[in-house]
């Protein structure tokens, strides 16, 4: 203990050492000493929850040229290296002990081998630089949901981002005493080329599940370095599995119903399927756009937003499509813009609705129209994965329960995917198990040409969480199925599909129609409207949708539209079940038998209806 204290005093100074020692946590001290010795920074700044410490780090981000102030003084921009613009899936790995089998979908490697490799890259990686030791809290503070977390990094940009995105957690650590119940993150940008990571070919992001630790090196992109985001989510999925709660890749929103009623929904959508636009529907309120913890409290399922800010894709944020975010980004609210174009100290990005400047500075350096990279590929003025980082509380539609330590009661859960030919726009599961299996665990999404180069390829992505599941898939599904045991009235489960197309290949719904589906779900979850029972769940009645379209969108909704959108496409629905059954037959982890049982029963219902009513069944035929 004395040796630890001496090293901490040498690197952190008297004040920093006192801040750490005041926590009285030997597990924490050992972690800090181990990685401070390994990474060998010139000095270490230890931050508390004070505003002064936060301002110090923000100033360092400017001084170190990791960020540059924009025309609005509370705004700054950051550039990642040209080849460091997204999460590195290939080099993000779980470190597992011998014989442990997570899933065929999970990228893993032997624990000792991984630690040896990444420790080699981390050795003296902070030489000559200042490191930062920072304390944060996942979930609201003073809450059953709270998980303290500590980050060591040599990037002031990373810490500044985390300060916007997460609650401060030094006081939370005081409650731990000598407990090991916290998450640990170590990051180094490694050797720098100017202000960006030089050795991105040696970029590594390893998750040590045994020690609740994430290690990343030779990268600056926030998805690889802001440990408390998707990296912490992987740790939390394991923790929640062991403790009987859930960690989900879900937004949390308040849907405003009749008489001032607010019903809270969570929703899981893969990328490019409408997740953020649903959470930001005009007239509703948002608690979170990305990650939710769900717990059983006093006979109810309640949830919180793990974060307090948004690290969002900025492409297509404009006054028409995202007016509230646009307004916030053009206000005095603190914001970090990353990998956009800067001209005359103003940020520009793809799809912002403004004329593109002929030149400026961006993630590639000095930029002008027609610039090409070394491979002859034209460089866009802003990266398609360019981001903004802002606090949630300043959005006009921020829900008043954002910081509630008790969270909010979950009334409904929504699963959404991009599906051109199978699923109706909205449907309700028969019950919790039916929803988890046929909607959540069967979630697919079609790729888009803009993101993956080939459109229409269906990608399996259970619960929109496949990239982050840190336990065997079978156990993860079983946890979800059994989660509401003991709850009298669990949340109602729905699925939505905003991308259904007609025979002419055109979308059958407009972008704003999702408001109608969310309003119908709110009424349905509260028992205010009836529905039509079908082989795949409950669907809306025409008159209910007609009234909602009129009330919410001032739009006439015809019976012809209704029939085309809610006709059950039997061959496509049967084919989907067969695809999902095949996916799980190939899975190496043990899948709960309920899954195949529920899927096979749904297939039997579809086959019986098809035999009686044909391949394409009108909702009116089903109603009769």
Brief descriptors of the model:
globular; 9-stranded mixed beta sheet; Phosphoenolpyruvate Carboxykinase, domain 3; 3 domains; 24% strand; alpha+beta; Phosphoenolpyruvate Carboxykinase, domain 2; 624 residues; 19 helices; Phosphoenolpyruvate Carboxykinase, domain 1
Number of helices: 19
Please state the second-level CATH architecture of the largest domain: Alpha-Beta Complex
Overall radius of gyration: 25 Å
Q: How many domains would you count in the coordinates?
A: 3
Largest sheet, described in full? 9 strands, mixed
Multimerization state: single chain
Stretches where pLDDT is under 50 for at least 5 consecutive residues are 449-453
What is the CATH top level name of the largest domain? Alpha Beta
Total strand count, please? 35
Structural class: alpha+beta
Q: Roughly how much helix do the residues carry, as a percent range?
A: 25-40%
Tell me what you see in this structure.
Strand 12 (204-208) and strand 13 form a beta hairpin. The chain contains 19 helices and 35 strands. It has 624 residues and is an alpha+beta fold. The longest helix has 21 residues, at 593-613.
Q: What would a concise description of this structure say?
A:
With 624 residues, the protein is of the alpha+beta class. 32% of the residues lie in helices and 24% in strands. Helix 1 crosses helix 2, helix 3 (51-63) crosses helix 5 and helix 11 (432-440) packs across helix 18.
């Amino acid at each position: 203990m004395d040796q630890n204290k001496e090293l901490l005093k040498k690197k952190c100074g008297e004040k920093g050492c006192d801040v750490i020692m005041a926590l009285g946590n030997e597990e924490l001290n050992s972690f800090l000493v181990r990685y401070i010795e390994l990474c060998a920074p010139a000095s270490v700044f230890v931050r508390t929850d004070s505003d002064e410490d936060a301002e110090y780090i923000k100033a360092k981000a400017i001084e170190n040229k990791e960020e540059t102030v924009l025309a609005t003084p509370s705004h700054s921009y950051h550039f990642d290296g040209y080849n460091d613009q997204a999460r590195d899936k290939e080099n993000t790995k779980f470190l597992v002990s011998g014989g442990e089998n997570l899933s065929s979908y999970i990228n893993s490697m032997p624990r000792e081998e991984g630690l040896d490799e990444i420790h080699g890259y981390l050795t003296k990686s902070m030489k000559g630089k200042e490191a930062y030791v920072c304390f944060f809290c996942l979930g609201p503070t003073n809450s059953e949901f709270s998980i303290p977390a500590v980050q060591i990094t040599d990037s002031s940009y990373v810490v500044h981002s985390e300060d916007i995105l997460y609650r401060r957690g030094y006081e939370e650590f005081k409650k731990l005493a000598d407990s090991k119940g916290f998450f640990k993150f170590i990051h180094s940008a490694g050797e720098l080329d100017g202000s960006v990571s030089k050795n991105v070919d040696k970029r590594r992001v390893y998750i040590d599940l045994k020690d609740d630790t994430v290690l990343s090196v030779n990268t600056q992109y926030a998805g690889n370095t802001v440990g408390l985001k998707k990296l912490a989510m992987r740790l939390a999925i394991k923790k929640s599995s062991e403790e009987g709660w859930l960690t989900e890749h879900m937004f949390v929103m308040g849907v405003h119903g009749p008489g001032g009623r607010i019903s809270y929904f969570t929703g899981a959508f893969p990328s490019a399927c409408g997740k953020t636009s649903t959470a930001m529907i005009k007239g509703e309120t948002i608690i979170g756009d990305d990650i939710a913890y769900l717990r059983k409290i006093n006979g109810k399922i309640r949830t919180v937003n793990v974060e307090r800010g948004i690290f969002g894709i900025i492409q297509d944020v404009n006054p028409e499509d995202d007016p509230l975010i646009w307004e916030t980004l053009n206000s005095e609210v603190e914001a970090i813009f990353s990998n956009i174009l800067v001209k005359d100290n103003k940020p520009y990005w793809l799809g912002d609705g403004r004329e593109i400047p002929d030149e400026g500075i961006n993630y590639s350096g000095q930029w002008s129209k027609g610039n090409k990279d070394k491979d002859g590929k034209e460089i866009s003025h802003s990266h398609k994965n360019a981001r903004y980082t802002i606090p949630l509380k300043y959005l006009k539609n921020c829900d008043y329960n954002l910081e509630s330590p008790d969270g909010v009661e979950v009334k409904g859960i929504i699963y959404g995917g991009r599906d051109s030919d199978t699923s109706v726009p909205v449907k309700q599961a028969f019950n919790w198990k039916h929803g988890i299996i046929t909607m959540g665990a069967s979630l697919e999404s079609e790729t888009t040409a803009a993101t993956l180069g080939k459109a229409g390829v269906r990608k399996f992505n259970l619960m929109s969480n496949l990239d982050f599941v840190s336990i065997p898939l079978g156990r993860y599904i079983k946890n979800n199925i059994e989660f509401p045991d003991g709850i009298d009235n669990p949340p109602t489960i729905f699925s939505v599909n905003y991308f259904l197309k007609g025979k002419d290949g055109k979308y059958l719904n407009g972008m704003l129609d999702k408001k109608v589906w969310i309003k119908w779900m709110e009424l349905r979850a509260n028992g205010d409207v009836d529905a039509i029972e079908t082989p795949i769940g409950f669907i809306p009645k025409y008159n209910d949708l007609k009234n909602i379209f009129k009330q919410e969108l001032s739009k006439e909704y015809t019976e012809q539209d209704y029939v085309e959108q809610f006709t059950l496409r039997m061959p496509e629905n049967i084919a989907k079940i067969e695809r999902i059954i095949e996916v799980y037959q190939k899975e190496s982890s043990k899948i709960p038998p309920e899954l195949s049982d529920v899927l096979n029963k749904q297939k039997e219902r579809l086959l019986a209806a098809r035999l009686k009513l044909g391949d394409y069944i009108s909702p009116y035929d089903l109603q009769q």
